[in-house]
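Thought: the user asked what Neurofascin homolog (Chicken) a isoform X9 looks like in 3D. I have the sequence; next I should run the structure tool and report back without guessing.
Action: structure_tool
Action Input:
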Amino acid sequence: MWTQRRWAALAVLSIISLLSEEAAAIEVPLDPKIQQELKQPPTIVKQSLKDYIVDPRDNIIIECEAKGNPVPTFQWRRNGKFFNVGKDPRVTMRSRSGTLEIRSSGKPEDYEGEYQCFASNNLGTAISNKILLRVSKSPLWPKEVLEPVTVREGSPLVLACNPPPGLPPPETFWMDSFIMPIAQDRRVSMGLNGDLFFSNVLAKDAKTDYSCNARFEFTHTIQQKNPYTLKVQTKEPYNDTFLNSTDVYGVRNIPETQPTFLSPTGLSSTKMVLRGEELLLECIAAGVPTPTITWSKRGGDLPTKKVRIGNFEKTLRILNVSEEDIGSYTCMASNRIGSIRHTVEVQVKAAPFWLEKPINLVLAPDESGRLVCRANGSPKPTIQWLVNGEPIESSLPNPNRRVLDDTIIFETVQFESSAVYQCNASNEHGYLLANAFVSVLDMAPRMLGPKNQLIKVIENNRTFLECPFFGSPLPLLRWFKNGLGSGLDGGHYRLYHNGTLEIKQARTEDQGTYTCVASNILGKMENQVRLEVKEPTRIVRAPEHKTEPRGTTVRFDCRVKHDPSLPATVTWLKDEKPLSFSWIGRLKKDDESLTIYNVNPDDGGTYTCTAKTEIDEDTASARLTVTENDSSSASNRSASAGRPDPPQDLELSDPSARSVRLTWVPGNENNSPVTHFLVQFEEDRWEPGKWQNLSIYDWNLNSVNLQLSPFVNYQFRVIAINAVGQSQPSHPSARYQTSGAPPDVVPSGLKGWGSKKNNMEITWQAMQNTERNGPNLRYVLSWRRKDTEEEWNNITTAKTKHVVHNTDTYVPYEIKIQAVNDFGHGPESNMVIGYSGEDKPSAAPTDLRVSKINSTKVNIHWEPVEQSSVNGEFKEYKLYYWREASLIKGLKVNKTKLQKGFFTTAEHPSGILTELYPYSKYKMYMVVANREHEGPQSNTVEFYTKEGEPGAPKYFRILRHTDVVHLKWDKPLEPNGVLIGYTLQYHTVNGTQAGERKVQSFPPNVTEYVMNLPHRFTRFKFFLAARTQVGAGEVYAVESPHFTNEGNGSMTSIQVNQQPHIKLAGLVAGAKYRLRVYSHEHNSISSDYVTFETGRAYKEQEDIATQGWFIGLMCAVALLVLILLIVCFIKRSRGGKYPVREKKDLPLDPVDHKDQDGSFDYHSDEDNKPLQGSQTSLDGNVKESDDSLVDYGEGGDGQFNEDGSFIGQYTVKKDKEETEGNESSEATSPVNAIYSLA
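Observation:
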């Protein structure tokens, strides 16, 4: 079926407008059959630049391409004489082309000169521009010995560069011996001629390596001049401490001098520049301190939208010079000693430029027409006409042709009138040359569209029936329906000049066969278009919003009604992303619904159903919310069910080139029926050991025919699936090897885009391993420029990316790809369109201006840029704006630069800038942006917003006392105008009842108010707002706190630089707060106030030490302790007195005493020495102090009396001493006691 849009462009080509009796030029359609039949004079389609500089190391290519029928032949002239290409073995001409190729061997300078190409056939001759061929030159720097330069500190200095004259001229820059650029600033900078200028020399400038470098573009070489040595004579020794001084010249004792100009010299000069070129003016001044440079234009301001000030204000650059830039420009150099001026008279001349370029003229016999060639320039150019490359004055007379200055009039042309005419507009600054042919042809009407096309439209839609045609003379076209009646035009129909028939609202009765008939004096031609009117596609049962518990099954309906003759497809999206339906997934769809099994919270979202036919579509959406529930009952129901056992006994049969039959025996279902079988495969060539899903089958199948890919060594396994889950995989089958074949799929994801302005990156997705079909997979990539007859460029690669270099900026390319392996080539992809890289836009929006300014928004208008200057895909016009100042004195503002984009292609674009601060001064400028870059800035515009309603007061505090309420506030952070006062409203609050509201007004200088309370427990609610001339602003509402829990009503702002949630610290327990969130940049963007109350804290603890009951209790406890101590002391005294006899320490021989259990005690002199603080017992042994550990040892004999004293240790019975003798326990020794614990 032929689409409507495909031939829209061709239909436009069939328009022929008649101006009185003259026929306007038409473009011959690109239909191949017409192009083959039409005789057409030559047309130059490609040629080299007029000023053509070539690299001497490369072959010289001088381009000349032309089209015509018959195919043109080519000749060249060099320096005005015939150039015999065949006689020079180094020169060749490309076939079917006039392009010359000169090999680089020998001296390329021998071929310098002026070349002109002539393309001819039997209908005429077209000529190219005169191409001035020159060879690039990069001469060496002349040898010279530079003497050291000695200068007194504070004096000016110029270090000359004088680079060698190259072609094109080199770019100059200054570096030192470390290949580092010489630092430049207001004092030291390089001039336009490459010299290095010092406004004044300082001691730190003394170096031995000031070197000027020249970079030659064509040869990519850098020539370096011998370095200068600079010696500075100083009065003061130099050290680094002078660098931190604010007055270097005063510290260094350098006398101050008045400014003088280093470049240019004198007080005035003149400058001539050509229209459209770049104007560069320079002023470099000497003086101490370093002078500052300012620029001005006499009689007006500098054209800010085109002017660029650079090189530390020393250069003025005007882009795209025009006649409006003529005038006197003054630079003023000034310091605190004085100033000096230099005036430059700028004259703008112009090489010729087109006002009306002649265009090709196609006429029928006996028709009339004209060629017009209008150009302008300064001085005004002269117009010269040529025919077939020779002056028209010397051509054969033609009675059907009249020359009137810039116009040639043709009357009643005949076939012999066909020729190619050239218009040459020239003045002293250049020339323009244009070819335009006059072609006389007669052709019966031709239909350019397909025969008997079928167009399907939706009922009640606007419909266009296309009928592109061509003929000479211009045919008359009429439409008929079903071959009956007169021509269709008017009422329900509208006929356009290009033959298109519009049906304003297609109805069922409009179906039928439409015939378009084109006729002229040479005959007629007709074509038919069959129109079918279809019912619209509609979703008659749309999905509904659902809220379901986790684990349940959800079904969304999507019943579609559509025209029976149009197949419809239904697709589903979740949150605007396509749903994936896998073999074993929980999502299933059919023609009328979507079912989700075992839903979980992640399934929540918006589900969209889209029903689509080839000519229309309809959509509907619903929301799913999943809630948590108790799943215990579901668990109980499935407690007895389990996963199925794996299938068994896998067998392969019926082998073929790309299929094999797989059979298996199902395993035990384990109380839950099997719903599906999943077949997986593993191959050992690309990803051995990795099992991948192949296909899924219903429960009632156990023998399936598997569709396979070539050149894969398969083995298979099967997994059973029931409601509980998947079984373990079966044992693998035997391996099955498929044979190889050429690729049968096309690489996907083919696209081309530019990463740089002169390249295009072409990428595509690698084919899957199972799509290779054979070894050694490669990709054959082809590309060429769109809408040209160029040959395809080809490359074969195994990668998935290729970069095309040296492209023009943002031009379309046709791209295609195919896969190939050792078995052959795969299918070729469809052609895709890619684009080379984008460059920065070269033009800025002009005439940026504003209108309809109010307090928060303003209308913006500008003049658009030409699409060709965008140098890429137009993205938007981007407006940069910032708040320069508030009109309220002393109010500081945030000058952060903001931006807003406007996407519009209107002829007179405009937009609205909102969210501005009232009563403020704003500045803005605009750029145009493509996908990668932004262009130059437009003119900067200032505007002032009007007054607005003020914001809320900065704070509103309530200080409540017993009988009065003291209110205090402060002016708003954003007054948005001149405050004229405050309005306070208040009323009593008693539960939910509000009393009568009262109003108080205050002048702007009053920020507090004291109000008497009629009763201590009366509560009020207050509403405070500031006022400007516009009106009252945002209300600050607070409620007076309870008397027992007062607040001060203060406002606190916290700047938040993070996403929610945040925690507010430092709040008072049990207090009420009002909270809002607002934009720090735009105070007008704010949430509503919310009120909350913090929780009550624990009751404040009283100081227990000051309580009477606690003091009494402590006294009672102290008395009781004192009594107990006295009782203990008395009872201890009743234990009796005993003699204590000091004994001398007698040395004892160490004796081994054997215990009854057979163990030994070891004693030494140290063991028998009394410890400090110990007592000697009655038997002469050392006795531990009262707090000795022996009292608590298990082996000790000391016991407590009933009163808890230790008296028993000192009243040991004699018989016990006799029994025990000198035996001692380990625990009796303090040392041994410590060891035992260890």
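Thought: the tool returned a structure. Summarizing for the user.
Final Answer: Structure for Neurofascin homolog (Chicken) a isoform X9 predicted. Confidence is low (pLDDT under 50) at residues 1-24, 631-639, 1097-1102, 1136-1238. The CA atoms of residues 162 and 193 lie 8 Å apart.
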